[in-house]
Amino acid sequence: MAEKTTRKRSRRQTPALKLAAGRRTPGPFAPIEDAVAAIKAGQMVIVVDDEDRENE
C-alpha cells in the first residue's frame, strides 16, 4: 500500500474586495457601478437575489 503524503497549500495573498466601504447607499450591498468597476479590475463579485423576492 502506498503511503499518503500531505502537502500544505499556499494561499494566494489577494487583497479583499471592499466595495461596500465607500458605498453611497445604506446596507451591505454595493452599487452596480462599483461592482462593474470591480469586475473590470479583475476582482470577483458575488451577485445575490433579494431575499424577499419570489422565485419564479
- What gap, in angstroms, lies between the N and C termini? 53 Å
SSE string: H
Main β sheet profile: none
Strand segment count: 0
**Overall average pLDDT:** 73
Radius of gyration: 19 Å
Specify the helix fraction band: 10-25%
Counted by DSSP, the helix tally is 1
Write down the overall geometry: elongated
Low-confidence stretches: none
Short summary:
With 56 residues, the chain is an all-alpha fold.
Description:
It is elongated and about 55 Å long. With 56 residues, the chain is mostly helical. It has one helix at residues 32-40. Helix content is 16%, strand content 0%.
Topology of helices and strands:
Layout lengths: L31 H9 L16
Quick tags:
elongated, 56 residues, single chain, mainly alpha, 1 helix
